[in-house]
Fold:
Amino acid sequence: METRFRVLTWNCRRATQSSPAWNYLCELAPDVALLQEVNSIPLIVEKEFDIRYRRPSNKTGTPQRFGSAVLVRGTIGQEVLLQSTEDWVNAELRHFAGNLLAVEALLERGPRLNVVNVYSPAWPVEKARIAGVDVSSVKLTLNPDVWVADLLWASLRSINLHQGFWVLGGDFFNLSETFDAWRGGPRGNREYLDRMAALGMTECLRKMKGQLTPTFKNPRGDSFIHQIDHLFVTDPLLSRLISCDIGNPERVFGESLSDHLPIVADFVLP
Structure:
């Protein structure tokens, strides 16, 4: 007998309890939802899921008005420690604890997952905090700054990702290969994806589509060319991936649910 389960990641654009985005989320019926930019969650959703919620940091280090949420149809277990071998990285991981929400997810129908909800903002790590520190082992070679996504990668290097099932999803604001085509040359977006692949983490949407699939509609000019939302899984879970696609653009953009499309992936276990 097969067990199927669904994982979703979506930046909900400051969704409140009354936002119609929740109706669409319920229609998509995920078993695990990694949500970013959530202001509040309606009771109908709270009744269906176990929820862990945390506010990411702004530039000054104070909590944002919105938060990130992990929704599990089942039970959320203990938090998963993200830790590096480098002290300065650990200090920044503590600073950005709300941007990287990592927990165990025990599904009603499905396996135990280690999930990481990622909200990597549009601005990098404050240079003053890392002045005089050798960041070369973490910083992308093609980018002058250190980003929250880089801190995540540095912590993943210290984890045995071949044990258990790992899922990382969210809004990687500075991470789209289309940005490498901008004036000034590549800024490390393809480099970052290659780094993740070297750790054994595959981006599900690219794997199933075979190409970059846009997920973000730019409010300036309405261009729809960037994929800044990603869903990564480790090899043990990749072998069980049966589909991965984006949400309906006409529904999401037409009804102003968000400027991001959800990524929805389905898995099957024998």
Notes: The mean pLDDT is 95. Residues 3-269 form a domain with the Deoxyribonuclease I; Chain A fold (CATH 3.60.10.10). The CA atoms of residues 14 and 167 lie 23 Å apart.
